[in-house]
Amino acid sequence: MSILLFLLGFIASVYGIIIGAGGGFIIVPFLILFFDTPSHIAAGTGLAIVFLNSISGIYVYLKQGRVLIRQGVLFGVAAIPGTFVGLFFVQQISEHWFQYGLAVLLVGLGIYITCKKPPEAAEVCHTSSNEQPRLFLLLVIGLMIGTISSFFGIGGGWLLVPFSFIYFALMPTEQRLPPF
Predict the structure, then answer these.
(1) Helices 24-35, 131-152: inter-axial angle, 10-degree rounding
(2) Cα separation of 3 and 46, whole Å?
(3) Residue 138: count of CB within 10 angstroms of its CB
(4) Contacting residues for 177 by C-beta, under 8 A, at least 6 apart
(5) Does the pLDDT of residue 121 top 50, yes or no?
(6) DSSP per-residue string spanning the chain
(7) Comparing C-alpha atoms, which of 69, 45, 84, 72 is closest to residue 157?
(8) Residue 31 pLDDT more than 50?
(9) Which of 11, 44, 69, 127 is the most buried (most CB within 10 A)?
(10) What is the pTM of this model?
C-alpha cells in the first residue's frame, strides 16, 4: 500500500507540476475512492501535497522565466481569505455532498476544457486604462479560487490556468519572461 501511495504521489506531482495544477485533483478522488478516506482528510492531504509540489515546482518555473510574480502575488493574497471560507464550508458539508460536488466540478471542468476553444487573438493588455478593472478581476478570481481549492483540497491551478490565463486572457501562456 505504501508503494502504491508513493507511486500515486509521484505521478500526480509530475503531471500536476507540468500543467501548473499541483496534482491534488488526482490525489483527493483517489484517496476517497480507493482508500475510503473521509472527504475532509482527503482534502487536507491534497492541500499538503499541492503545497509541497508548488514549492518544488516554483523554482524551475522561476528559473525558466515562466512566472508573472506581481500577478501571482495578487492571486495569492486574494486567495488567502478564500481558503478560510473553503475550510469552514468543508466542515459543514456531508461526505455525500462533498463527493458529488467534487465529481461535478471535475467532470464539468473536463467537458469545458475539451469543448471550449481559446480565443484566437488573446492578448494581455498592459495599458494603464485597463489596469484597475483587470486588478479587480485578478483579486476576485483569486478569492474564488482560494475558496474552491481549499474546500476540495485540490489546489487552484487546475481552475486558474484554463479560466484566468487562457479564456480571460489575463496572463500569457506562451510568452517567456525575463528571470527575476
Answers:
(1) 20
(2) 18
(3) 21
(4) 65, 66, 67, 68
(5) no
(6) -HHHHHHHHHHHHHHHHHHTSTTHHHHHHHHHHHH---HHHHHHHHHHHHHHHHHHHHHHHHHTT---HHHHHHHHHHHHHHHHHHHHHHHHS-HHHHHHHHHHHHHHHHHHHHHPPPPTT------GGGHHHHHHHHHHHHHHHHHHHHHHTS-SHHHIIIIIIIIS-SS-SS------
(7) 72
(8) yes
(9) 44
(10) 0.73
Of the two residues 42 and 156, the one the predictor is more confident about is 42
Which cell is 18 given? 507540468
| C-alpha cell of residue 145 | 479560487
Output the CA–CA distances (angstroms, integers) from residue 9 to 12, 38, 110, 175, in the order listed. Answer: 5, 18, 21, 30
Q: Distance of CA 109 to CAs 64, 65, 106, 141, Å? A: 28, 28, 5, 16
Residue type, 160: L
Q: Give the span between the Cα atoms of 83 and 137, in whole angstroms.
A: 18
Instruction: Say whether pLDDT at 7 is over 80.
Output: yes
Hey, what amino acid is at 148?
I
Q: Which cell goes with 90?
A: 468543508
